[in-house]
Design a protein that fits this description.
Strand order of the largest sheet of chain B: 14-15-13-16-12-11-17-10-18
Distance between the termini of chain B: 35 Å
Strand content of chain A: 25-35%
Shape of chain B: elongated
Radius of gyration of chain B: 32 Å
Oligomer: heterodimer
CATH superfamily of chain A: P-loop containing nucleotide triphosphate hydrolases
Number of strands of chain B: 18
Strand content of chain B: 15-25%
Mean pLDDT of chain B: 83
Largest sheet of chain A: 6 strands, mixed
Helix content of chain B: 55-70%
Structural class of chain A: alpha/beta
Shape of chain A: globular
Largest sheet of chain B: 9 strands, mixed
Radius of gyration of chain A: 17 Å
Strand order of the largest sheet of chain A: 6-7-8-3-9-10
Structural class of chain B: alpha+beta
Number of domains of chain B: 4
CATH architecture of chain A: 3-Layer(aba) Sandwich
Number of domains of chain A: 1
C-alpha cells in the first residue's frame, strides 16, 4: 500500500511565495485550415513550488495548451511564460531542451511508455537522453519509490493500467523536475486505481516540493488539488482555492 | 462506377497525402522496369547489327555453301555445271578498317557483272572498268560520303579505292568490291568464302534441292539453308543475352520487395478503416481486391514511367552491350534502338504483374481484418505477426532445395536450374532475415548504447519492434547487396583467373597482329614474309606463327586455329583439364590429325579428350581426334587448335593472324622491338609488348563487364530509394514515439541521430546479410551458371578492394537515405503527434 496522502487541511511545507512558473498575459492561437483558433486568451497565472494545481474545464478550453506552454514545449503567441524567472520565449531549441530535461516532467493520460523498452529502460530514458550519470541506479530508485521495482524488467504490455501510470510517473520524476505536468493522469484508469495515482501525486508534491499542474475533467481528481484553475474558451473563468474545493 | 469512386477515395487519396513516399515507390518500380526494358532494347540493337552486316547483300538466298578456310574452286565449278536454272552468287567475305576513322566494316567481294546483269543485290548498272581501277560501292549506312576515294586497311596493307556510289537496300555498312579485286587484295588464290544459291522460282521443296545440291558438291564442303550464320550468331549470343536479362531482373526483384513493403504499410495503417468498411458490408474479396488494385495502380504508373526511362537508359546500355558482343563474340556496330509496341507492352505487363504479385500477401492479410477492429476503442498499435522461427526452418529447406537445384545439368544449354538455385537462395536469405534482425537487435542493444549512446540503442530497438517492416526493407537492400557482392566476386574471380592465365600463356616478348581493332570473329592476316623476316633478325630467338579461321561447328560459330606445337611446348605454359599428360599431347599433336580444344568449345559441343571432330578442310572431310581440353579465356566462341604444319596440309595459306616473337636472352625489349619494327616497316602491323598486351586484355575485360556493374548500381539505387521511402513510413508510424522523446528531453539533433542510426543499422545489417548471401550466390554463379552458360572454369578469388569499396558505398548511401526522413522527424510537432490520439 502506498502511504496515505498528506492532510489537505495543512498547507504544504514547501509552499513558497516566489513563483516557480509564471504566465503573464499569455495568449496562444493556432491556424487550423486557415481559421484562427484562440486556445488561450490573456491568461495570467502564477504557481509556486509545492503546489498541486488542477486545470479544469470542458474539452478545448485550453488545458493542454497551458500545460504545453508550462512545459516549454510550445511558445506563447503573446505574453511571457517564465520558469524559475527565465522566459521561455528567449530560449533557443537547445536551451529549451535543457530546460525540459532539468525542470519539467510529463505524465500523460495514455501513459506513453515506449513499448519496445522495458519498464526500467523507459524510466531511465530521460537520463540517457540528457547524458546524466548513473541512469540505471536512479531509475531503480524511482521505481522503488513508486513500488514497481519488482517489475523493472517487464515490458509495458505486461503491466496493468495503474502499473503503467506508476511507471510513467517514475519516468517523469527520474530527473528530479521542479514542475510536474500531468495531462488527465487518471483518465484511462478505473476509480480505485485513479485514487491510488492521485495519492501518489500528492505525495510527490508534499515530499519533494514539486509543483504539480494537472489537467483533468474529473471532479474527484480536481478535489485532490490545492487550487483549481477553471478555464473556459481559453480564459481563466475562476480560481478555486483548497478551502473552496 | 462506384468501385472506381471508392477506390479513388479510399485507396488513392491517402497516397496523395504522402507524395514523397509515393513518388519513391513509383520511381523504384520505374527503374526496375526501365532496366529490364533497356537491356532488352540494347540486346536487340546489338544483335540487329551483326544480322545486318552478315546478311548484307545476301538477299533471300535459299542455300549457302561454305568451308573453313575457303571453298575450293571445284565447288563453284560443280554447281555451275548443274542442269538447273540456279542463281549462284559467289562471295568473298572479310573485313576492313577505314583508315581515317578506325571504323571496321564488312568487306564483301561479289561478282559485279553477274549481279548487275541479274539486277540483284542492289548492285549498280554502271560498273566502269573493273579490271583497271580499284573501285568500291558503299552500303546504305556506310560511315563515309559516297564520293572521292576511300583508304581501307585490308589485312596488313592500306589500299585506296575509288568510291563509285552508294548501294540501296539492306546493304548496311558494307564496302562492296568486285570478286576479282577481292581475290587479289585478300590473296585468296581463287578460293571463295561462300556461294549463295537461289533455287528456280516456283520451287518449294527445299529438302529435295538440298539433297540434289549435296550430291553435286565435293566432299569437305558445308551446305546450309540461307541465313545459317545469322542463326548461329543468335544462338551463340543466347546465353549472353539470357544472363544479362536475368541480371536486369534484379532491380525489378528489389522493386518487388518495396511494393510488398508499401502495400504492407498501407494495410497496417488502414486496419481501422478496413474494419469500418467490413462493418459497413464490404466482403473479404472486395478488401483484397482494393489492395491488389492499389498494387496494380503502382505497377501501372511505375511501368509507364519505366518505359520512358528504359528508352533513355537503352542509349547508354547499347554501347556497353555492343562492346561486350564485339569483344567476346562477333563484330558488331549497334543498330538504332527500336522501342516497339510489343516491347513496351511486355514491360507494362511485367511491371504490373510483379507489382500485383508483391501486393498479394498484404492484400490477403487485409481481407482477414475483423469488423470488430472498427469498434476497438482508441488506436491499438498493430504489429503484423512475424513467424521468425518458422521462417528460419523454411529458409533452411529452401537452401537445401537450392543445393539440389545447383546440381542439375543445363536445359538446352541454359542454366535454368542454376537460376532457380539462385532464386531459392535469395528467398531463403529473405526468410532468414527476421530471425537475424531480431537476434542481432537483442545481442547488440547494450553494446550499442555503450558505444554509440542512447540514440543507437533506441534505433536498434525501434528496428526490432517493427520487425516485419524492417525485415522486408533489409531483405530488399540485402538482395541488392548480395547480387552486387556475388557478381563482384564472380567478375573479380574471373579477372584474377584470366590474369593468372595470361601470366602463364603469354610468354613471348612481342606480339604482332595486323593493325586495326580486334574482334572475336575477325582474323585478318599479315604477309607470310613478316615472320620470315623477323626470324632472320639476330636479336630474335624464335617466332611462333598463329593462324585463326572463323568457322562454324555444330551449328555454332567457333575458331579453328593452328600454332607451332614445338614452340608452344618449349615456351608456353598451356594447362590442360584433368590429368592430361601435357608432354604426350605436345609430342602427338604434330604427328597427324589431332587437335586440342578449348574448355568453352568442349563444354558447348560436349566433347572431351578422346572424342573425334570432323571438319571440312580444303575440300576434305578431316576427322580430328581430341588429345586434350585446355584452359582458355581468349574467346567464348571456343577454339580447335591444330599443329601449324598439320593445318597447312589442308589449308595451305601460310599467312599468320598473329605472331609471337621470343627475343634472345639479354636483348633489351626496346632494342628487340625496334629491330622488329624496322624489319616490317612496310607492313601495317602492330607490334605489342607483352605487358601492353596484358594491360589491353584487362582493359577489354573491364569494359566487357561494365554493363554488369551498371546493372548492379541500378539495383542498389532502387533499394536505397526504397529505403528512404520506407524510413519515411516508419517515421510516420512512430511519430508518437518520436514526439514523446521530445517531451522526455531529447533534442532535435538527437532525433536526427536516432533516424540516421536506424538507416545506418539497416545498411550494416543489409551489408552483412547481403555479403553472406552474396558469397553463396557467387558460388552458384561461378560453378553453375557461368560453367553451364559459357563453359569457363573460374578460380574463386576474393576481390577485397571491390567488395570493401562497394559495401562502404552502400552503407553510406543507406545513411544518406535517412537524411530526408530524419529532417521530417525533426520537424514533427511533438504536441500534435502525442495528443492526436
Amino acid at each position: 500500500m502506498l502511504p496515505q496522502p498528506a492532510s489537505l487541511a495543512e498547507p504544504s511545507q514547501y509552499a513558497e511565495t516566489v513563483a516557480l512558473l509564471r504566465l503573464e498575459s499569455v495568449s496562444k492561437h493556432y491556424a487550423t485550415d486557415g481559421a484562427r483558433v484562440d486556445a488561450l486568451r490573456d491568461v495570467t497565472l502564477s504557481f509556486s513550488p509545492g503546489e498541486f494545481v488542477s486545470l479544469a474545464g470542458p474539452s478545448g478550453c485550453g488545458k493542454s495548451t497551458l500545460l504545453n506552454l508550462a512545459g516549454a514545449m510550445d511558445f506563447p503567441s503573446s505574453g511571457t511564460v517564465s520558469i524559475d524567472g527565465v522566459s521561455t520565449t528567449a530560449l533557443n531549441d537547445a536551451a529549451l531542451t535543457r530546460l525540459r530535461r532539468n525542470k519539467t516532467g510529463f505524465i500523460f493520460q495514455s501513459f506513453q511508455l515506449l513499448q519496445n523498452l522495458s519498464v526500467v529502460e523507459n524510466v531511465e530514458l530521460p537520463l540517457l537522453l540528457a547524458g546524466a550519470p548513473h541512469p540505471r541506479e536512479r531509475a531503480l530508485e524511482r521505481l522503488e519509490w513508486v513500488e514497481l521495482s519488482g517489475l523493472a524488467d517487464r515490458f509495458p504490455h505486461q503491466l496493468s493500467g495503474g502499473q503503467m501510470q506508476r511507471a510513467a510517473i517514475a519516468r517523469a520524476l527520474v530527473n528530479d523536475p521542479r514542475i510536474l505536468l500531468a495531462d488527465e493522469p487518471t483518465g484511462n484508469l478505473d476509480t480505485a486505481t485513479g485514487a491510488v495515482i492521485l495519492t501518489l501525486l500528492r505525495r510527490i508534491v508534499d515530499e519533494h516540493g514539486t509543483l504539480l499542474l494537472m489537467a483533468t475533467h474529473s471532479t474527484e481528481a480536481a478535489a485532490a488539488s490545492d487550487r483549481i484553475v477553471r478555464l473556459r474558451d481559453g480564459r481563466v473563468e475562476r480560481i478555486e482555492t483548497r478551502a473552496a474545493v | 462506377m462506384p468501385a472506381a469512386l471508392l477506390f479513388s477515395r479510399l485507396m488513392l487519396r491517402p497516397l496523395r497525402r504522402e507524395p514523397a513516399r509515393t513518388a519513391l515507390t513509383l520511381l523504384a518500380i520505374a527503374l526496375g522496369v526501365a532496366v529490364v526494358l533497356a537491356i532488352d532494347l540494347a540486346g536487340d540493337a546489338a544483335a540487329g547489327s551483326f544480322r545486318s552486316s552478315v546478311e548484307t547483300l545476301a538477299g533471300d538466298a535459299d542455300f549457302e555453301v561454305s568451308a573453313p578456310g575457303g571453298l575450293p574452286s571445284s565447288a563453284a565449278a560443280s554447281l555451275a555445271t548443274l542442269p538447273y536454272a540456279l542463281n549462284l552468287h559467289p562471295r568473298i567475305e572479310d573485313s576492313a578498317e577505314i583508315v581515317q576513322t578506325g571504323h571496321v566494316v564488312p568487306l564483301i567481294g561479289v561478282d559485279m557483272v553477274a549481279d548487275a546483269s541479274a539486277n540483284e543485290s542492289g548492285a549498280p548498272q554502271d560498273l566502269g572498268n573493273l579490271s583497271t581501277s580499284p573501285q568500291v560501292w558503299i552500303g546504305r549506312d556506310f560511315p563515309h560520303p559516297a564520293s572521292g576515294t576511300l583508304d581501307l586497311r585490308i589485312n596488313d596493307r592500306i589500299v585506296t579505292l575509288a568510291i563509285r556510289g552508294r548501294l540501296k537496300g539492306s546493304t548496311g555498312e558494307a564496302a562492296v568490291i568486285d570478286l576479282a579485286l577481292a581475290d587479289r587484295l585478300l590473296h585468296r588464290d581463287g578460293a571463295l568464302d561462300r556461294i549463295l544459291i537461289r533455287i528456280p522460282k516456283g520451287e518449294s521443296n527445299l529438302d529435295a534441292w538440298e539433297h540434289r545440291l549435296r550430291a553435286a558438291l565435293p566432299p569437305g564442303v558445308t551446305l546450309e539453308r540461307g541465313g545459317a550464320r545469322t542463326r548461329e550468331n543468335r544462338k551463340m549470343l543466347q546465353a549472353f543475352r539470357w544472363n544479362l536479362r536475368v541480371l536486369s531482373y534484379i532491380a525489378l526483384l528489389v522493386g518487388a520487395f518495396l511494393i510488398y513493403n508499401t502495400i504492407s504499410v498501407s494495410v497496417v495503417r488502414r486496419r481501422a478503416e478496413v474494419g469500418i468498411l467490413r462493418a459497413l458490408g464490404a466482403g473479404r474479396p472486395a478488401i483484397a481486391a482494393a489492395f491488389l488494385a492499389e498494387s496494380a495502380a503502382f505497377g501501372l504508373a511505375g511501368s509507364l514511367l519505366g518505359i520512358l526511362l528504359g528508352r533513355l537508359l537503352a542509349l547508354g546500355a547499347v554501347k556497353l552491350v555492343a562492346s561486350t558482343v564485339e569483344s567476346l563474340y562477333v563484330s558488331s556496330t549497334p543498330a538504332p534502338i527500336a522501342l516497339t509496341l510489343p516491347a513496351a507492352l511486355a514491360a507494362l505487363v511485367l511491371g504490373t504483374a510483379v507489382s500485383v504479385l508483391s501486393g498479394l500477401a498484404p492484400a490477403i492479410e487485409a481481407s482477414t481484418v475483423p469488423p470488430t477492429e472498427a469498434m476497438a476503442r482508441g488506436r491499438v498499435d498493430y504489429q503484423s505477426r512475424v513467424h521468425k522461427t518458422r521462417d528460419l526452418v523454411l529458409a533452411a529447406l529452401l537452401s537445401l532445395a537450392a543445393l539440389i537445384a545447383s546440381r542439375i545439368p543445363p536445359v538446352e544449354g541454359k542454366p535454368l536450374f542454376g537460376y532457380l538455385a539462385a532464386l531459392l537462395l535469395v528467398a531463403a536469405g529473405s526468410l532468414a532475415i527476421p530471425f537475424l534482425v531480431a537476434s542481432l537487435a537483442d545481442l547488440t542493444g547494450v553494446p550499442l548504447r555503450r558505444l554509440l549512446g542512447v540514440e543507437a540503442m533506441l534505433a536498434g530497438r525501434g528496428l526490432a519492434a517493427s520487425l516485419r517492416r524492417t525485415s522486408v526493407l533489409t531483405a530488399a537492400l540485402a538482395v541488392a547487396v548480395a547480387m552486387m557482392a556475388a557478381v563482384g566476386i564472380m567478375v573479380g574471380s574471373f579477372r584474377e583467373t584470366v590474369s593468372l592465365w595470361m601470366e602463364n600463356q603469354l610468354k613471348a616478348d612481342l606480339y604482332l597482329r595486323p593493325a586495326g581493332p580486334e574482334s572475336a570473329d575477325r582474323h585478318p592476316v599479315m604477309a607470310a614474309s613478316v615472320p620470315d623476316r623477323i626470324e632472320q633478325l639476330p636479336e630474335v630467338l624464335a617466332v611462333n606463327r598463329f593462324r585463326a579461321y572463323a568457322i562454324s561447328y555444330g551449328g555454332l560459330p567457333a575458331t579453328l586455329a593452328s600454332t607451332d606445337t614445338a614452340l608452344e611446348h618449349r615456351f608456353g605454359r598451356v594447362k590442360f583439364l584433368g590429368a592430361a599428360n601435357r608432354e604426350a599431347i605436345f609430342h602427338q599433336l604434330p604427328l597427324g590429325n589431332f587437335a586440342v580444344v578449348s574448355e568453352p568449345f568442349a563444354n558447348k559441343h560436349h566433347v572431351e579428350a578422346g572424342s573425334t571432330l570432323t571438319l571440312s578442310l580444303g575440300g576434305h572431310s578431316v576427322p580430328l581426334r581430341i588429345l586434350g581440353v585446355y584452359y582458355d579465356y581468349a574467346s567464348e566462341r571456343g577454339y580447335i587448335l591444330l599443329d601449324r604444319h598439320v593445318l597447312l596440309r589442308y589449308l595451305p595459306d601460310p599467312a599468320p593472324s598473329n605472331v609471337a616473337v621470343y627475343l634472345k636472352p639479354g636483348v633489351p625489349l626496346d632494342e628487340g622491338r625496334a629491330a622488329v619494327e624496322r624489319a616490317i616497316a612496310s607492313h601495317s602491323v602492330l607490334v605489342i609488348a607483352n605487358r601492353s598486351l596484358r594491360d589491353e586484355a584487362m582493359r577489354i575485360f573491364d569494359r566487357t563487364f561494365a554493363i554488369t556493374y551498371a546493372l548492379e548500381a541500378v539495383a542498389i539505387l532502387v533499394a536505397v530509394m526504397g529505403m528512404a521511402g520506407a524510413l519515411l513510413a516508419l517515421i510516420i508510424d512512430r511519430r508518437r514515439e518520436l514526439g514523446l522523446l521530445r517531451f522526455l528531453g531529447s533534442s532535435a539533433a538527437q532525433i536526427r541521430r536516432l533516424i540516421l542510426f536506424e538507416a545506418g543499422l539497416l545498411g550494416l545489417l543489409a551489408n552483412a546479410i547481403g555479403l553472406a548471401l552474396g558469397v553463396l550466390l557467387s558460388l552458384i554463379l561461378i560453378y553453375v551458371i557461368n560453367k553451364q552458360s559459357f563453359g569457363w572454369t573460374i578460380q574463386f578469388h576474393w576481390p577485397v578492394a571491390v567488395l570493401l569499396g562497394s559495401l562502404t558505398t552502400v552503407f553510406l548511401a543507406a545513411v544518406l537515405s535517412g537524411l530526408y526522413p530524419a529532417r521530417v522527424a525533426m520537424r514533427l510537432n511533438p504536441i500534435e503527434v502525442v495528443h492526436e490520439e
